[in-house]
C-alpha cells in the first residue's frame, strides 16, 4: 500500500480512524464512544466528509476526517449511502423502516413517505388479505410474507439494513430490508415495488449489481445467496461451491487478466442467534466455535465460488464473524475486513452479546490476510477513503 488511506472502523464502542500506509495502521482519532456503529459512507469528491449511522442515536457527519462529529439526523439509524453520481445526495435508513434523503450533504432531510405504502400495496397485489401471526417466528421453518416489516428480536420491527444506488442510474434504488425483502424504486423513491420473489427467507443483508451492469444482480440473505438478471422477474440461488448458508457483505474488485470483476462475499453457518458462542448466553463465549465464518470469491459473476483465505490468515474454523468488507480505493486488489465477536443485533430490550474485534487486510483479493488492527471492540463496519 504505497498511498495512504483513512480507514473508519465502526465498532460497538464508536469509531476509530486509522491512517493506513505500507501495511501499517496508525490511530489518528476516536469518536462517538459508547455507541454501536451500524453503517458508514463517504464523499468521493470530499474524502474528509464521512457519515456514520448509529443504532438508537442518529446519523453523524464529520467534515474533517473524524476529528469532530455532528449529529445531522435523529433516529435509530441502520444504514447510510451517498449517491455515487452526486455527493450532495445522501440516503439514511432506520429501524423501524423509514427512508430519508438529503439533497445538501446532510444539512436538511426529507422522508420518502412513499415507502410506507409498500407493505399494503404488496399484499394486495399478491392477494394476501389475511393478517399473519408473527409470534411463531422461533420455528425454524417460519416464513413471513414479502414486505412484512418485522424482526425476530424485540421490539420486532424491521429496518433498512442496506441501500444500493446504481452508479449508472441514480433513479434506480434497491433496499435490503431486514426482515421484509427487497424493495425497488426506478424513479428515485417516488414509487416502490416489492422484488423479493424467489427469496424464501426475507432477512436481507445486501443487494447489489455487477459493476456498471443492469443485467446481473446479487442478494445476500440470512438463508441464501441469490442472483437474477431482473429483480422483478425473481431470484435464483447462486451458491455453487459455497459450504455455508448465512451471507452478509458483497464487494467487487477489478477482473484479473480480463473477464468479469471479482466478487467476494462474507459467509457463516446458521445465524447469530444460534451460533454456539452466543446461543442461550448473555455474552460471547470465548474459544467456542461461533460463526464458522468464511470468505468466497467468484470470477464469473456469481455463477461459481471458491473459498479464499482459509489457512492463509483466516482460520479454517473461524470463531468470530466477518461483519464488514471494504475495498481499498487506492489499491486494486486491496481488501479490508471488519471482524467481531458480536451477535450483530443491537436492541434496547435485550442483552447485546459482544466481545473483541479486529481489522484484517488482504492485498491479493482475499487469497491471504494479515492483522491490521487488533484489540478493538467488535467491528461492525469499515469504510476507506484516500488520505
Topology:
Layout: E1 5-11, E2 14-21, E3 24-31, E4 37-42, E5 50-54, E6 57-62, E7 70-75, E8 77-82, E9 90-94, E10 99-102, E11 110-111, H1 118-125, E12 159-166, E13 169-178, E14 181-185, E15 193-194, E16 204-209, E17 217-221, E18 224-228, E19 236-237, E20 246-253, E21 262-268, E22 294-298, E23 306-308, E24 321-327, E25 335-342, E26 354-362, E27 370-377, E28 379-386
Describe this structure in words.
Helices cover 2% and strands 44% of the residues. Strands 3-2-1-28 form a four-stranded antiparallel beta sheet, with no helix packed on it. The chain has a four-stranded antiparallel beta sheet with strand order 4-5-6-7, with no helix packed on it. It has one helix spanning 118-125; strands spanning 5-11, 14-21, 24-31, 37-42, 50-54, 57-62, 70-75, 77-82, 90-94, 99-102, 110-111, 159-166, 169-178, 181-185, 193-194, 204-209, 217-221, 224-228, 236-237, 246-253, 262-268, 294-298, 306-308, 321-327, 335-342, 354-362, 370-377, 379-386. The protein has one domain (5-125, 144-386): YVTN repeat-like/Quinoprotein amine dehydrogenase (Methylamine Dehydrogenase, Chain H), CATH 2.130.10. It is mainly β. The radius of gyration is 19 Å and the shape is globular.
Amino acid at each position: 500500500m504505497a498511498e495512504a488511506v483513512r480507514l473508519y472502523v465502526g465498532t460497538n464502542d464508536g469509531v476509530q480512524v486509522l491512517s493506513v500506509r505500507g501495511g501499517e495502521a496508525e490511530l489518528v482519532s476516536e469518536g462517538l464512544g459508547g455507541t454501536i456503529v451500524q453503517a458508514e459512507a463517504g464523499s468521493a469528491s470530499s474524502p474528509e466528509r464521512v457519515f456514520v449511522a448509529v443504532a438508537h442515536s442518529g446519523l453523524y457527519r464529520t467534515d474533517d476526517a473524524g476529528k469532530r462529529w455532528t449529529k445531522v439526523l435523529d433516529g435509530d439509524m441502520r444504514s447510510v449511502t451517498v449517491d455515487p453520481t452526486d455527493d450532495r445526495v445522501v440516503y439514511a435508513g432506520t429501524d423501524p423502516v423509514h427512508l430519508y434523503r438529503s439533497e445538501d450533504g446532510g444539512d436538511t432531510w426529507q422522508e420518502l413517505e412513499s415507502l410506507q405504502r409498500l407493505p399494503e400495496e404488496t399484499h394486495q397485489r399478491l392477494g394476501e388479505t389475511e393478517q399473519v401471526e408473527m409470534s411463531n417466528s422461533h420455528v425454524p421453518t417460519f416464513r413471513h410474507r414479502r414486505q412484512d416489516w418485522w424482526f425476530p428480536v424485540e421490539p420486532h420491527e424491521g429496518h433498512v439494513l442496506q441501500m444500493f444506488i446504481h452508479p449508472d442510474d441514480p433513479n434506480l434504488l434497491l433496499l435490503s430490508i431486514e426482515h421484509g425483502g427487497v424493495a425497488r424504486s426506478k424513479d428515485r423513491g417516488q414509487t416502490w415495488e416489492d422484488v423479493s420473489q424467489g427469496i424464501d427467507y426475507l432477512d436481507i443483508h445486501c443487494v447489489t449489481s455487477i459493476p456498471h451492469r443492469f443485467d446481473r444482480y446479487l442478494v445476500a440473505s440470512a438463508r441464501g445467496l441469490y442472483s437474477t438478471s431482473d429483480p422483478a422477474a425473481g431470484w435464483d440461488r447462486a451458491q455453487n461451491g459455497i459450504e455455508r448458508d448465512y451471507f452478509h457483505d458483497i464487494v467487487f474488485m477489478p477482473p484479473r487478466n480480463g473477464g468479469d470483476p471479482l466478487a467476494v462475499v462474507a459467509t457463516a453457518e446458521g445465524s447469530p442467534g444460534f451460533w454456539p458462542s452466543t446461543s442461550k448466553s448473555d455474552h460471547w463465549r470465548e474459544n467456542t466455535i461461533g460463526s464458522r465464518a468464511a470468505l468466497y470469491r467468484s470470477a464469473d459473476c456469481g455463477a461459481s465460488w471458491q473459498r479464499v483465505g482459509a489457512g492463509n490468515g483466516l482460520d479454517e474454523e473461524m470463531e468470530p464473524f466477518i461483519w464488514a468488507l471494504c475495498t481499498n480505493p487506492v489499491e486494486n486488489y486491496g481488501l479490508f475486513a471488519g471482524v467481531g465477536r458480536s451477535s450483530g443485533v443491537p436492541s434496547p430490550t435485550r442483552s447485546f452479546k459482544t466481545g473483541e474485534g479486529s481489522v484484517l487486510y488482504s492485498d491479493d483479493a482475499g487469497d491471504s490476510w494479515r492483522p491490521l488492527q487488533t484489540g478493538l471492540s467488535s467491528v461492525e463496519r469499515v469504510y476507506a477513503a484516500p488520505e
